């Protein structure tokens, strides 16, 4: 049934009805149907990294009752945090030693070169799109700030030993989709998988381990985080549709006094109207998804050869 649902939500003419799409900004509706429960994490404010996140005590965290282990955090990012990760995903991550789908070099200033062309970037252990097997010979250093971000979310959820070792950054445009798949390349399938969204919204379908089961559609907005733990790590999921977010942009009002560790010299770009403009344009027309995984088992130091 995953396929049928994917087709329904992908449709342009007629567009799909959104009435069954779980919307975490309308939580009373879903509480009443016993679809979600609220969960609390154990992180204290003192554990907070200065990396664009709001006070962890204010985060709204839910688990889907029909999909045990599928956790959703409603946008815990500040507006500056959203800008920071956008700049990292466009200015820095799509360059060596990281890998992208692009053969030719691109210049972010010429925005139109990027549009529709940049589809993915891989970091850390590089995802092999053909074999789906990670290799010790195909990895680069994992960005420290993205590791820190993932670790803080992991800690909040009690995954204190989580090690970020691989990431895929996906770039979506209004006609992009990501078909149903499972993530099973990691040797460690117990570790959670963290998925961060920025820019335009998406319908995200989360199913079960069987392609025959009915998936649940969820609306993801800028800043939202989906964490796939337990069985949901091996569940089918996909993105049939990118939707325009008609609300006020969540990256709109930046606070120049926000405490932020800016080791990568990003904030100058976030605060300068001219420098920020191409990123703003990108976010208004596109969606960025960073998903972060642990590859190795806790006791493993590296992948065994071949
Ligand atoms: C993925 O499953 O790899 C990405 C999901 C998303 O874009 O939200």
Written description of the protein model:
The protein has seven helices and 13 strands. The chain has about 300 residues and is an alpha+beta fold. It has a single domain (about 1-295), classed as Sandwich (Jelly Rolls). The protein has a nine-stranded antiparallel beta sheet with strand order 1-2-3-11-8-13-6-5-4. A hairpin with a 5-residue loop joins strand 2 (about 60-65) and strand 3. The longest helix has 14 residues, at about 80-90. The protein is globular. Succinic acid binds near residues 195 and 237.
Key structural traits:
9-stranded antiparallel beta sheet, alpha+beta, Jelly Rolls, 306 residues, 7 helices, single chain
Question: Tell me about the biggest sheet?
Answer: 9 strands, antiparallel
CATH topology: Jelly Rolls
Overall CATH class: Mainly Beta
**Main β-sheet, spatial strand arrangement:** 1-2-3-11-8-13-6-5-4
- Heteromolecules bound: succinic acid
The topology string of helices and strands comes to: HHEEEHEHEHEEEEEEEHHE
Fraction of residues in β-strands: 15-25%
| CATH level-four homologous superfamily name | Alpha-ketoglutarate-dependent dioxygenase AlkB-like
SSE-based structural type: alpha+beta
Shape label: globular
| Distance separating the two termini | 36 Å
The averaged pLDDT comes out at: 88
Determine the fraction of residues in helical runs and give it as a percent range.
10-25%
Which architecture does the CATH hierarchy give at level 2? Sandwich
Low-confidence segments: none
Query: How many individual β-strands?
Result: 13
The whole-angstrom Rg is 18 Å
* Structural domain count: 1
Work out the helix count: 7
